[in-house]
Amino acid sequence: MPASIDSYGPIAQHTVAITQVIQILQGARRQGLDIDIALWRAGISPGLLESPLSRVTQMQYARLMRVLARTMRDELWGLTPHRMRPGSFIRICSQLIHCRTLGEAVRTGLGLYRLLPQVFTPRLLVAGDVARIQVTHRESQVDAPESYAMRTFCFMSYGVMSWLTARRIPVLCVGVPSGKGYRSEAERLMRTRIRYTSNCASLEFEAHWLALPVVQTAESLQAFIREVPGNLVIKYRDRSRLSERIRRLLRQQALVDGVTLEEVGRHLGMTPQTVRRHLKAEGQSFQGIKDNLRRDAAIQLLARPDLTLNDIAAQLGYSEASTFHRAFKSWTGLAPGMYREANLKPAAVR
C-alpha cells in the first residue's frame, strides 16, 4: 500500500505558475541576457515557457530570483530603470530588527527604500482602522516589468513584516497595477479581495497590527538571510482557510483520490454541504483541491530520478499509469515523461 504523500519528504508544497517565471524574466530579456542560461542555472527547462499551464517548484523559482539578482547585480532583476544594488535588502533588514514595533519597522524600512533611486515610491498610509503599504509609480501608467517589480516589492515587504513579528498578518485587500501583461497570482496566494489600479500596488491590513512587537534578533536575521528569497515567495499564505486545512489533511492520506468529502467533513466536524458552501465562498472545490495537490506533488516527485513514472502514479493514488499521464498533461500541458526529461536536463548542465 502506498505511503502518504508527505512520506517522501517536504513535497506537495504549492507550486508557482510559469507566468510568474515569464514575468520575472522581463528585465533580463529587455537587457539582452541569455534567458536559457539563467533558467538552466535555476534548474528550469526553457521549454516550459512554451507551455502556458506548466508550473515550477518554489525552490526553482527562488533559485531563479537569486540567479537573476546575482547576474544582473540588481535585487529587482532589471525590471526597473534603476538598479537596486546587491545587499540593499540585507542592510535594510539589519536596521529593522532594532525597531520596537512593527509600525516603527515598516516606516523605517520604507523610508530607507525611498532614499534609493527608483521609479516608484513606497509608503505606509494609515486611515482609521486600516493600514496600507502603497507603492506608487511616478507616472500615471505602468509598464509590465515595472508592474511586476512593484507587486513583488509589496509581497516581499509583507513577508518581512510577518517574519519580524513571527506571525502571519491577515490581509484585507491587495491592490495590483492593471497594466498590460499577465495577471497576478495575488488572489490565489493571499485569498483576499483584489483591486486593480492604474499606477500603484498595495496591501491593506488592520492598523492595530502595527503595534505588534518586533521579535527577531541579530541571530535569527542570519538564518533569515540564508533562506531569502525562498522564505518570502509563498511562505506566508493564509493557512487558516478551509481549502488549506483540507489540503494539509489530504497530504497525510495514502490515496488522495479515495478520500471522500464526507470523510473530510467528519474530520473537520462539518457536514458535506457546509464544506461545499465554505469552499465555494473561497472560490475552491473539493475536486480542485485534490487535483492541485496531486499536480504539485507530481511536479516535485518527477524531479527524483530514483522514482519511475509508475512509482509516482501509484504514490499519487492512480491505479493505472495511463490515467496519471492524462491527468498530468491536462494540468501542465505536458506528458509527465516529457516534463521530467525537460527538467532533468538543466540539472545536468549546471
TrEMBL record:
Coiled-coil ranges from the UniProt annotation: none
The HTH araC/xylS-type domain, residue ranges: 244-342
Annotated keywords: DNA-binding, Transcription, Transcription regulation
Ribosomal protein as UniProt keyword: no
UniProt superkingdom: Bacteria
DNA-binding among keywords: yes
GO cellular component, one term: cytosol
Gene Ontology MF terms in the entry: DNA-binding transcription factor activity; transcription cis-regulatory region binding
PANTHER family: HTH-TYPE TRANSCRIPTIONAL REGULATOR GADX (PTHR47894), HTH-TYPE TRANSCRIPTIONAL REGULATOR VQSM (PTHR47894:SF1)
UniProt name for this protein: AraC family transcriptional regulator
Organism name: Bordetella genomosp. 2
